[in-house]
Amino acid sequence: MAHVKRRMIKVALAGNPNVGKSVIFNNLTGAHQHVGNWPGKTVDKKEGFHRLDDKVIYIVDLPGTYSLTALSVEEMIARDYIIYEKPDVVVDIVDASNLERNLYLTMQLIELGANVIIALNKVDLAEKAGMKIDPRKLEEELGVPVIPTIAPKKKGMRELVEKIIELAEKRSKVHDGKMLRYESSVERFIEKLRGEIVSKKKLVKLFNPRWVAIRLLEGDEDVIKKLSEIEGGEEIVKKAAKLRKEMSAELGDPEVAIADARYAVIKSIVSRAVGELKRLTASDLLDNVLIDKYLGIPIFFVILWWWFQMAFIGSTPFCDILGDGFAALGEALTGLTGNPFLDYLFFGEYGIIQGIGVVLSFVPLIMFLYFILSLLEDSGYMARAAFVMEKAMRKMGLSGRTIIPMIMGFGCNVPAIYATRIIPEENDRMIAILTNPLMLCGARLIFFSAIAAAFFGTYAGDVLFSLYALGIILAFAVALILRKTLFRGAVSPFVLELPAYQKPSFKVAAIRMWDRGSMYLRKALGVILIGLLIIGILTATDAETFTFTTDPERSLVAALGRSLAPIFTPLNWDWRLIVAMIFGFVAKEIVLGASAMLYGAGEEEIASKLANLYNPIDMYGYMTFILIYIPCIVTIAAIRQETGSWKWTIFTVAYGLMLAYIINLLIVTLGHLILG
Amino acid sequence: MNHKNKPIYILASILSILYPLYGIIQFYRGAIAWWIPWIGGEGIQLGVRIGDAWIPNAFPDPFSGIILMIIGVIFARSIYLSRKNPELSDGFLFVGWILALLMLILNLVVLAADILDTYYPLLWGGEIEKTWTLESDPWGIAPHLILGIIATPIYWKIKHLLKQLIP
Question: What's this model's pTM, rounded to 2 decimal places?
């Protein structure tokens, strides 16, 4: 290996995901490849060799990225490799059928000063879509060599290798992006800062000055940090901050201004290098409708409504079958232990089997929801949904990037809160964290599904839909208030790449459904079981004598609920609802399991039992309370970890409780006033 | 609009009327059933009565009504664009057809789920509480199913787009 390294040419393969990078890597390296991990990361590192005559080329396959902004691990790996390992050549694999989007990365590679060759891949697909790309014109416009390729047919591979060798051997100094200049209003700031950087010899040795200038103006935290550790870097960082302020005042957000400038150059290049399109592609036509200014959001609501109806109604028989199964199991096991207390605790009318059974009987609903969500994600539609919601979110003080944790919050708030790390601006991120618990997670959905079915019958899907909508509206409202008060400032911009539409895979959807759905099974056998066991013991213990009782009205848990009754009387709750709500703090699924135990009802009877005690308005109010109040204990831990502050953790709990109470009170009061 | 496409655009025009029409009926019936019961007049239906069942059955549901209206607007937009820009018009026709298909599938899933929910106890020799009938089903054969079937021929107009996405 050491013998080979002395004479070899070092090449990095870069490109967007799904452009055929792996196919080109395999074509070039054949069997001479090795797969490992990037140091300290769990991202695959593929490296291999190609030999042509007496030349040996060492090839590294960089992770697929849409840009080099260092927002993700993949981007950081790709960027650092090019900066610090200084490959002789970077082969940028560009999807010819999606030229505009792919050239964004190309522009950043050229800015970086890399010695770039473009492998213009999928030219056959581009032609099929009616695009006639002139590679020579593209080469002229970008100032880098362009080799057309069709990777699966191994077309253009030899030409690519020959060009790599030619460029590596001719190489004299790093490209400075001389061919590409942005519009003068942006270029003025870049040049000003670049001039300052060039005067610092140590910086010039390490980085391309133009690239550093652009990244500093874009507010790249990683570059700022790295520069601050170098002699003379601190001064540049300060000057960059000043220029960034000036640029903000003149052009708006610098990151957006520079991204717009890049796209303006790309558009002009594409218009010159690509022949007139014969027709719009199916993808263009779909996007024209799905992200339409007026119809985009209504279509999103059509899809959401369809999703909930399909999941709720489609899963009903399976939920009922499971509910009946658990009821039969409880009955069959009665008397098994021979001990009246244990028998009552586990298999009785108010027993744990009853509680767990009710929770588990809603697992099919969760599975259906996740299955359909996976299909929608896979099809490429969810990215469009994020795009159409972005504008509305910005108006409400939420960063467009928040849409991703928000959608994740529909599954579980815990990973959603960790996902807010993709939001670079601190104020935006804090608002996203503090409002995420308002997203209706799968755990709450279990309770809502049961109650909605009991009280609203065939309209249960609509009721669920309204709760999702309420959660989103409240998140927007709270975000707006936070933005105007505690977290003032402008919302940071959002650049979203729209993936290509594709046929969703049922197999992938089934795997994801199982992965996400099985989490509830594990939870049911862990924290929920423990929670229900505690409630069971408290329900079977007499509050006065501390002995075994079969009358829940005399139990410790009833005493606990009654002690808080004065607070919740205006909401028309009895002690059982209070207790179920308190234990929901541990895990939201417990609210349903606890209700089943406290009312002594299984999946089948809980509907009629609750319907006899409450009216739909009171129950809808209770559901809104459960939607809004304290997040579960694991979510609270995640908020504490991500905000790094008890103050904001307590704030989230406190505002949630107050908001829940107010909304519940409003629904009950106005509901009874209007509907009687 | 070329001569060959005329029947499809006539069909799309019909759908751009029927979807909102049934949407309004559902919304009206739903609003009365849910929010303003004192107004009365919940019985409005537009269809054929077979026994006690209406085909299609515009069951009272304001949300469902809004959904049907939105689909109608998408078809209407495709008609509006058919002369100005037929290519863009095809995009709206395509999305309208996909949504019509999704609603058709939903109605079929609802019927299958309701039938299964009624008869599953028979799987282990249990007894059923009541039998399933078209008139007892809250959805029954709803506008979602009928209009979805009517929209089927649009497939031949947009199949080239579908083939581009799913080669």
Answer: 0.67
Q: Which residue has the tokens 């739909």?
A: A616
Radius of gyration, alpha carbons of chain B: 19
- Whether pLDDT at B74 is above 90: yes
The mean pLDDT of B32-55, rounded to a whole number, is 81
A179 within domain boundaries: no
Same domain, yes or no: A134 and A194: no
Q: Which domain holds residue A151?
A: 2-170
Interchain CB distance below 8 Å, A324 and B117: no
Residue A358 and residue A475 in one domain: yes
Candidates A97, A285, A375, A465, partner chain B, best to mutate (most B CBs within 10 A): A285
Within a domain: A178: no
Write out the two tokens for A118.
């473009």
The CATH number covering residue A229 comes to 1.10.287.1770
A108-132 tens-digit pLDDT: 999 888 899 999 999 888 887 778 8
Question: CB atoms < 10 A from the CB of B47, how many?
Answer: 17
Question: Is any Cβ of chain A less than 8 angstroms from the Cβ of B109?
Answer: yes
Please state, in angstroms and rounded to a whole number, the distance separating the CA atoms of residues A573 and A248: 53
Q: Note whether residue A544 is domain-resident.
A: yes
Task: Give the pLDDT band (50/70/90) at residue A298.
Answer: very high
| pLDDT of the residue at A523 | 67
Give burial (CB, 10 Å; 0-12/13-18/19+) of A533: middle
User: Is the same domain home to A275 and A306?
Assistant: no
Express each pLDDT in A236-245 by its tens digit: 999 999 999 9
Residues of A in contact with B108 (CB under 8 A): none
- Rounded CA-CA distance A61/A50 in Å is 13
Shortest CB distance from B90 goes to which of A285, A302, A310? A285
What's the pLDDT score for residue A422?
A: 66
One DSSP character per residue, A597-652 reads HHTT--TTTHHHHHHHH--HHHHHHHHHHHHHS---HHHHHHHHHHH--HHHHHHH
For residue B149, pLDDT over 90 is answered with yes
CB B91 to CB A286 under 8 A?
A: yes
Picking from A491, A444, A499, A468, the residue whose alpha carbon sits closest to that of residue A635 is A444
Domain holding A135: CATH number? 3.40.50.300
CA distance A506 to chain B (A): 14
Partners of B94 on chain A (C-beta within 8 Å) are 282, 285-286, 289
Q: Is B109 in Cβ contact with A306 (below 8 Å)?
A: no
Nearest CB to B117; choose among A281, A316, A501: A316
A407 occurs within a structural domain: yes
Distance, CA of A452 to CA of A176 (rounded, Å):
63
Residue A572 CA to residue A373 CA, distance in Å, equals 36
Nearest CA in chain B to A285: B91
